[in-house]
Design a protein that fits this description.
Helix content of chain B: 25-40%
CATH architecture of chain B: 3-Layer(aba) Sandwich
Number of domains of chain A: 3
Number of strands of chain A: 12
CATH superfamily of chain B: NagB/RpiA/CoA transferase-like
Shape of chain B: elongated
Order of helices and strands of chain B: HHHEHEEEEEEEHEEEE
Strand order of the largest sheet of chain A: 1-10-7-4-2-3
Oligomer: heterotrimer
Strand content of chain B: 15-25%
Structural class of chain B: alpha/beta
Number of helices of chain B: 5
CATH topology of chain B: Rossmann fold
Number of domains of chain B: 1
Largest sheet of chain B: 6 strands, parallel
CATH class of chain B: Alpha Beta
CATH superfamily of the largest domain in chain A: NagB/RpiA/CoA transferase-like
Number of helices of chain A: 23
Chains: A alpha/beta (472), B alpha/beta (215), C alpha/beta (246)
Chain lengths: 472, 215, 246
């Protein structure tokens, strides 16, 4: 997917003014935050379970080579054809090759964020193969020619009216006016594609080393359809999705649906191990898994490696005050919100997403909801340090910081300067005690809000004088 | 396969460079050989009660029968109450029951696009989440629980286990290797992709009816 | 006991009454208040901007200034969080300072945490009265677990009626330099905070962090709300509010 994170500032400002988007975001926020809180509270030892999950992910990553080899061994024993890809191009080409080898004309696809990374749909379509997204949100986005704005609710930026207009135009049917009718129209339209597609593509939420399985979670059932109906199934995943055992998977399942949608479990959890068995009546005759490493190993060897624990629940974005107001598109790549602010620069180069790690208040709401305890604010701060080291900060920011540091390290001078500032500030505030027009860097403050004026004297000044007086 | 070797080599180099201590006591080999169970939440409920509660929450409907030959009557009861078609496809294990006496047309085969009602068994069920566990296989078509608009599932009371960990324990003991697909099903298909409005019947069944069988 | 007051740079410059109120509270608890005169800033702005070296210099300065006190008390969750939860990591490559950072962290308390959990203060000399809401500042809440402490202190005030506002734990959008670098977003977030506050219909918003305070008060005034006061909890507990202290 094309990276547009460098436009974060202008795009986010535009999104704040987009009334329709704001309405949709407002709905989505409550729709995610409230149910999550409810089902998390049902677990008496949520913190203990979270810690266990973080430990399992860390352990898995520390021995990722061994677990991936074990996964491959088990998968191959079950008849899975395993591929590895080191670039987006390589993954896309593998998919097309598999499709061509099997005379595939039509592909049905269940949501895959790795597929979004590689720009798979466009590539496959460029080779004359039809691709139908089947997750309702992804289907909407595909019809509209857009990118997902959320990793588990891709069309969350769209209103019902948007979808109604879109379906009426694309389906050439009378315009429908409610979510249920629209959903059922999509069902009707997509059902024949499930039945006659030659190949299914899915992502994989997890790969389980113990059994060589891949797992996907859906609520709609499109995942089961995609893994069961076509004659060829290709799952695309990335190295860090590998976890050790079935019991470790059970642990993740206590956290992922809760954190993602506020469900105790997703409706359909489908674990696939190999293709159709000789005597089976259904299932694909061929099952391929493509394991991607783009950026992952680089992050694994860096101080950002905690980010690889991510299980893609979306809780960090759902709870982020920035995401809640600007939506996912502003982030300019596949993963929005706090995790995106770490992964986007980590995978695409720090210099290509300067704003993202800075566009956060570091409020740590993301950190406390993350089911695998990724210290997201710390990782964003580390990225800021790397920007600073590489001299990627704006000169205005750099120089104001330097000036301030110069003063803060010289207490005598500092006390004189702040004493003057307190006095001048009081004068600027006047009777209203509010400053509403600051210059230079300050104008970015007063463009949006007043600055309560200083009171004329610093604390240091008052306190030390008071003590002098009493001591005499 | 250069990609494979390159990636594995990069993982090894990265882990070496990061130099982080493993948080686990057990080695990789031990973990794979006898998978440890992570901390569980309090499971202070009776499994059957919890299964029913969660089933209800996930919008499944429930019924209970004492003997398997009561199944045709229970199915008829459900179908007529909901004015659903009386033509079914089922897993082979149910085909020999007295269906015709209830006026039900039934076939033992996988479902195709037009089938309206599918009847399946289930391998086991998980009380904690109200989940049916189905294993794909020669006698257990995956399509039967997927394509029809109504899915009726039979679960034996003795097969309701507490947790997913318990389900894995059962599977490890009874099944040589995992089937092509293990399907965990918790209620009818749904989506909330349009304005967070919950709608049933996205791509899978609109209705899931669970019949608990005593023996 | 000797209690070092780290008043914070923003209190020092913008709202000295909070520092005076903190002193009054500590003295009321029979603490010997030590105010190291050379204190400036905890280094958080540099730390959050990625300037690790400057942040380290300032952290070392703070550590040396508070080397001989029993406790360090800070009327701010975010500066308290910086010292208590970040200094050790910040100084991790300087072994000698790392140990000192741990020592300091163990002695450092956010003001309300100190009043509740160290000196257990339960009576206050204040004239303040009215209906208030409490905003849980991010660092205090999520780094230092400051949640019940201010509420417990406020519950001792007979003429104060605490009403919980919706979204009390939601960030106000300040975020240090975020508030100016991403002003449009920051402004929207604080607008929502003001909406929640105004819907609660109180006389004052009370909180424990200066950044949030300037941000929320500044936004309320810009919106034309000149009625709802925005006060630090130390001001409420002592009645030392704003101008009247001088």
């Amino acid at each position: 997917m094309e990276l547009t994170s460098h436009q974060f500032k202008s795009v986010s400002s535009a999104k704040l003014k987009d009334v329709k988007l704001q309405k949709a975001l407002y709905k989505a926020k409550d729709g995610f935050v409230v149910p999550r809180a409810k089902v998390v509270a049902e677990l008496d030892n949520f913190e203990e379970i979270r810690q266990a999950a973080a430990d399992v992910r860390d352990h898995g990553l520390a021995h990722l080579d061994v677990y991936l080899e074990e996964w491959e061994k088990q998968a191959q024993a079950a008849g899975t054809i395993v591929h590895w890809a080191e670039s987006y191009e390589e993954l896309n080409a593998l998919v097309v090759k598999i499709a061509q080898d099997n005379q595939v004309k039509k592909i049905i696809k269940s949501k895959s964020m790795v597929g979004e990374e590689t720009g798979l749909n466009r590539y496959v379509e460029g080779h004359g193969i039809e691709v139908k997204e089947t997750d309702l949100g992804e289907y909407i986005i595909q019809q509209a020619g857009e990118h997902p704005s959320h990793i588990i609710a891709p069309a969350t930026h769209k209103s019902k009216d948007d979808v109604a207009d879109l379906f009426a135009e694309k389906h050439q049917r009378p315009r429908l006016d409610d979510a249920e009718k629209l959903t059922h129209e999509a069902r009707e339209i997509l059902r024949p594609h499930f039945l006659d597609a030659d190949m299914g593509i899915t992502g994989a939420n997890f790969m389980i080393a113990e059994t060589g399985s891949t797992v996907i979670l859906t609520n709609e059932g499109n995942g089961r359809m995609t893994t069961t109906m076509p004659r060829v199934h290709v799952a695309i995943s990335s190295i860090e999705k590998c976890i050790p055992t079935l019991d470790d998977f059970a642990l993740m399942m206590r956290l992922l649906p809760r954190s993602a949608t506020g469900q105790v479990i997703s409706n359909y959890v489908s674990m696939t191990t190999g293709p159709k068995r000789a005597k089976d009546n259904d299932g694909p005759g061929e099952f391929h898994v493509i394991i991607l490493d783009v950026g992952r190993t680089r992050v694994l060897g860096s101080d950002l490696r905690d980010a690889l624990r991510c299980i893609r629940c979306g809780a960090c974005m759902n709870h982020c005050p920035v995401y809640q107001n600007v939506g996912g598109h502003a982030y300019g790549w596949v993963y929005p919100g706090p995790i995106g602010s770490v992964l986007t620069p980590a995978y695409n180069g720090i210099e290509n997403a300067i704003d993202l790690p800075n566009a956060a208040t570091l409020c740590n709401q993301c950190g406390v909801v993350c089911p695998v305890k990724i210290p997201l604010p710390d990782l964003m701060r580390k990225l800021r340090e790397k920007q600073y080291e590489r001299n990627l900060k704006s000169s205005a920011e750099k120089w104001s910081l330097r000036l301030w540091a110069y003063l803060a390290l010289r207490p005598k001078l500092y006390s004189i300067v702040t004493r003057i500032m307190a006095r001048v500030g009081k004068l600027l505030g006047g009777d209203s005690r509010r400053i509403n027009h600051l210059l230079f860097g300050g104008k970015d403050w007063t463009r949006h809000r007043d600055l309560p004026a200083p009171r004329g004297r610093t604390f240091r000044d008052i306190y030390l004088n008071r003590n002098k007086t009493t001591n005499r | 396969m250069p990609a494979r070797e390159n990636i594995l080599a990069r993982i090894r180099a990265a882990n070496k460079a990061a130099n982080v201590a493993d948080v686990m006591d057990s080695s990789v080999a031990d973990r794979l050989a006898s998978p440890p169970i992570s901390p569980l939440p309090k499971l202070e409920w009776d499994p059957e009660g919890q299964f029913k509660l969660r089933g209800h929450e996930s919008a499944s409907t429930l019924d209970e029968i004492a003997q398997i030959d009561e199944l045709p009557r229970a199915v008829t009861r459900y179908l007529s109450k909901n004015t659903l078609p009386t033509k079914l496809v089922c897993w082979p294990e149910f085909i020999d029951l007295p269906w015709s006496a209830e006026g039900i047309q039934i076939e033992s085969r996988g479902a195709i696009g037009d089938d309206k009602v599918g009847l399946t068994g289930s391998y086991c069920a998980i009380a904690e989440t109200g989940t049916l566990v189905l294993l794909s296989g020669q006698e257990s078509h995956a399509t039967t629980s997927l394509l029809p608009e109504t899915h009726i599932a039979v679960i034996r009371r003795s097969r309701i286990v507490k947790t997913m960990e318990d389900a894995w324990q059962l599977i490890r003991g009874e099944v040589v290797s995992l089937p092509r697909q293990v399907s965990f099903i918790s209620g009818p298909s749904r989506t909330a992709d349009i304005e967070m409005t919950l709608v049933y019947g996205a791509h899978g069944p609109f209705r899931v009816h669970v019949i608990i069988l005593d023996q | 006991m000797r209690v070092g007051l780290f008043v914070t740079c923003v209190v020092d410059l913008m709202r000295p009454s909070i520092g005076l109120a903190a002193v009054k509270l500590l003295e009321r608890a029979d603490c010997e208040v030590i105010f190291p005169e050379n204190q400036t800033c905890c280094g958080q702005p540099a730390y959050n901007a990625g300037d690790r070296l400057t942040a380290q210099q300032l952290a070392r300065k703070v550590i040396s200034e508070f080397a001989d006190v029993d406790y360090v008390v800070i009327p701010s969750g975010s500066c308290g969080g910086m010292i208590k939860t970040h200094y050790e990591e910040l100084l991790s490559d300087l072994p000698e300072y790392r140990v000192k950072a741990q020592w300091l962290a163990a002695r450092t308390y956010e003001l309300t945490d100190f009043l509740v959990n160290v000196v257990d203060m339960d009576s206050f000399d204040t004239t303040f009265q009215g209906a208030i809401a409490y905003h849980d500042s991010c660092a205090g809440l999520r780094e230092l677990n400051i949640k019940e402490q201010p509420r417990k202190l406020l519950s001792h005030l007979a003429h104060v009626d605490l009403k919980e506002m919706a979204g009390a734990e939601q960030c106000c959008g300040f975020g240090g330099t975020f508030s100016v670098k991403y002003g449009d977003i920051s402004s929207r977030i604080v607008d929502l905070k003001c909406d929640d506050l105004e819907a609660t219909e109180v006389d004052a918003l009370v909180l424990g962090d200066l950044g949030c305070m300037l941000n929320i008060e500044g936004k309320l005034r810009r919106r034309g709300n000149h009625k709802t006061k925005v006060l630090h909890i130390a001001e409420v507990l002592t009645g030392l509010v704003g101008e009247e202290t001088e």
